[in-house]
Amino acid sequence: MAFLVGCLLAFAVILNAEAKAGPSNISTDSSLTPTSNPSWLSSSGLYDFGFYKQGNGYAVWIVLLAGMPEKTVVWTANRDHPLVSNNATLLFTSGGLSLQSTQGETSVATITQSAFSASMLDSGNFVLYDSDQEIVWQSFDLPTDTILPKQRLRAGELLYSAKSESNSSTGIFRLSMQTDGNLVQFPVSAPASTPYEYYTSKTPGTGENVTLNLDMEFFACTYSYSLKHNGNWSVVWSSTRDKCDPLGLCGFNSYCVTRDMEAECKCLPGFESITPGDQTSGCGRNIVADICKSENENFTYIMEELPSTRWQNFAYMTLSLSDKEGCNKACLEDCNCEAALFADGSCRKQRLPLTYGRRMLNISNSAFIKVGISKPPATDNIIHPKGNKKESRVAVLIVGVSFTAFGSILLVISVIVFWKHNVWAYKRMNKLNGDVEWNEDVAPLPYAYEQLEKMTDNFKEEVGRGASATVYKGVMLSGQKLVAVKKLEKVAAEGAKEFETEMKVIGRSHHRSLVRLLGYCLDGPKKILVYEYMSNGSLADILFTPERKPYWEERMGIARNIAQGFLYLHEECDTQIIHCDIKPQNILMDEYMCPKISDLGLAKLLQQDQTRTTTGIRGTKGYVAPEWHRKMPITVKADVYSFGIVLLEIVCCRRNVDWSVPKEEAILDELVRVGEPSLRPSMKKVLLMLEGTVDIPIPPNPSSFLNTI
């Protein structure tokens, strides 16, 4: 399948006496059908307007019939609409042109005054006239991918390449006539800014011998044609001869290679095409696993070098390193790094996707790609005893008797310990239940593990799961109050520290936008927290589920309530707290759909005289502020960054990264990152802006944060 882009086509058409004939008039109430009366010709027969077959359907086109070996489409009506069947009708009335089909009625030419006649002109322009023969509509005003002689592409107007040879839908490139007089070519998926230009030039002079055309060849081209030379076409100028120059020719995570003068798209190492045969669809990993999961039994990661390639990407961290090996190692050891671009002593750590890649053999740049590989299956190192069968049987007998004796001793000890533990637990439960009853004024309360088993029916109903904990539904006060019981599953040193942090933070924090801690259990390796139950799940559950999507006013109310909770943590509680792990999954919704902040296990507490801290990276990929990766001191502005990502998700009602949408929309924050903490407002100012109390300032220019390598 061919892939289309924009091509600037200029040709000289020298017409003979046939072209001087008057226009062919079409009266109102005339119509076309795909089979019986498919088109209206210009007077010389050079152009044709009407139905043309495309695949299993029909489209309405203007076609250049002469000179080219095949019919050449120069204009398309309703370019991105579905094709119509052979029973469709194109009707010309005083109200304009309308297309009637089984899908309904669609306007092709809408006018504000009555039309009297129409004509397919020899210039390639289809026009509608009023009763005074004044033009009330013309196809020249709505160019698709072609500019014909005498047609103008005005400042601010665009031409779009076609997606297929039929020219029936919009492609992946655009040509812009800028107000500064330049014609500039961009990928459709990229913003109209300098880093994404792949061609720019002063506009050629316009006149009878000039046509601007976006065609199959991916470049701006000038063609010359004359009837005096038997209709032969030849290229006399093109914006580029290199077919890999246009950015976006190859999709995400793939790069362009020139082979035998043709462009070919290749996937990154460890990736495969998302849609085989469609180069613009990009590539995805052939092994999907959590790069940041340290205990992955099935996969490991290596770095593979891709030399002599250029990419256009934002780097979340840039390191000054003298050699490629250091860059390779720096990315491999950073779980958030999925690729690293090395050039001239600069190592730029990247998140996927990599965009606008191409191989250039004259550059020394290298890309290092993190590739997942399956671990080989473990083999049992069993040492088989040597010797005759008799010796083997004796050895087995001795080992069996030993294990039987040892097992009997363990069984006796276990029975004694179990009996004592039950007696002790019974006494402890009685003591706890006798000393104090649950009361909001004295929470959080200590609980025995056996109480929590009973409260959760032996941890029967799971309602949530995280990286290091599982949450179960429980009841207390004789079934009158629902609770959420969070059971930490990792009991290593970091788990104990996380548990203690969450106890300290939530135990002394009281705010309507924070989930309330009701109790806890600290029984050796058993570490459990008891929270108020949030009946509507997390913000992620309602935000990313179409049938539960809240209205705009509800979403803004949710955003304000969340901001109030973080303002409390940052400025209003006794100890300033940096949450460190803000994401929709950590914001829970109560029965009234009010949000409450949860999961403060990774939070960082600051001393009274502290405003910043230095600590190892923590948080969730996609929401982590850039300063974590740069090993800079961390302030509450790290939370502001993460809240900004969540706010984007609330506004757009979709995930920060979503590959189910068109690739140009897949990453919400690709061009809106604010890397410097000093440029971010405080949470108090964020809340005031959300409430409308203060004006929202003009944000920094995103282009200042773009890096190109």
From TrEMBL:
<dbReference type="GO" id="GO:0016020">
    <property type="term" value="C:membrane"/>
</dbReference>
<keyword id="KW-0067">ATP-binding</keyword>
<dbReference type="InterPro" id="IPR036426">
    <property type="entry name" value="Bulb-type_lectin_dom_sf"/>
</dbReference>
<feature type="domain" description="Protein kinase">
    <location>
        <begin position="457"/>
        <end position="709"/>
    </location>
</feature>
<dbReference type="GO" id="GO:0048544">
    <property type="term" value="P:recognition of pollen"/>
</dbReference>
<feature type="domain" description="Bulb-type lectin">
    <location>
        <begin position="25"/>
        <end position="141"/>
    </location>
</feature>
<keyword id="KW-0245">EGF-like domain</keyword>
<dbReference type="GO" id="GO:0005524">
    <property type="term" value="F:ATP binding"/>
</dbReference>
<protein>
    <recommendedName>
        <fullName>Receptor-like serine/threonine-protein kinase</fullName>
        <ecNumber>2.7.11.1</ecNumber>
    </recommendedName>
</protein>
<dbReference type="GO" id="GO:0004674">
    <property type="term" value="F:protein serine/threonine kinase activity"/>
</dbReference>
<keyword id="KW-1133">Transmembrane helix</keyword>
<keyword id="KW-0732">Signal</keyword>
<dbReference type="InterPro" id="IPR001480">
    <property type="entry name" value="Bulb-type_lectin_dom"/>
</dbReference>
<dbReference type="InterPro" id="IPR051343">
    <property type="entry name" value="G-type_lectin_kinases/EP1-like"/>
</dbReference>
<keyword id="KW-0675">Receptor</keyword>
<dbReference type="InterPro" id="IPR000858">
    <property type="entry name" value="S_locus_glycoprot_dom"/>
</dbReference>
<dbReference type="InterPro" id="IPR000719">
    <property type="entry name" value="Prot_kinase_dom"/>
</dbReference>
<keyword id="KW-0812">Transmembrane</keyword>
<comment type="similarity">
    <text>Belongs to the protein kinase superfamily. Ser/Thr protein kinase family.</text>
</comment>
<keyword id="KW-0418">Kinase</keyword>
<dbReference type="Pfam" id="PF00954">
    <property type="entry name" value="S_locus_glycop"/>
</dbReference>
<keyword id="KW-0325">Glycoprotein</keyword>
<dbReference type="Pfam" id="PF00069">
    <property type="entry name" value="Pkinase"/>
</dbReference>
<dbReference type="InterPro" id="IPR008271">
    <property type="entry name" value="Ser/Thr_kinase_AS"/>
</dbReference>
<dbReference type="InterPro" id="IPR017441">
    <property type="entry name" value="Protein_kinase_ATP_BS"/>
</dbReference>
<keyword id="KW-0808">Transferase</keyword>
<keyword id="KW-0723">Serine/threonine-protein kinase</keyword>
<keyword id="KW-0472">Membrane</keyword>
<keyword id="KW-1015">Disulfide bond</keyword>
<feature type="binding site">
    <location>
        <position position="487"/>
    </location>
    <ligand>
        <name>ATP</name>
    </ligand>
</feature>
<dbReference type="InterPro" id="IPR011009">
    <property type="entry name" value="Kinase-like_dom_sf"/>
</dbReference>
<dbReference type="Pfam" id="PF01453">
    <property type="entry name" value="B_lectin"/>
</dbReference>
<dbReference type="GO" id="GO:0106310">
    <property type="term" value="F:protein serine kinase activity"/>
</dbReference>
<keyword id="KW-0547">Nucleotide-binding</keyword>
<feature type="transmembrane region" description="Helical">
    <location>
        <begin position="394"/>
        <end position="419"/>
    </location>
</feature>
<feature type="signal peptide">
    <location>
        <begin position="1"/>
        <end position="19"/>
    </location>
</feature>
<dbReference type="InterPro" id="IPR024171">
    <property type="entry name" value="SRK-like_kinase"/>
</dbReference>
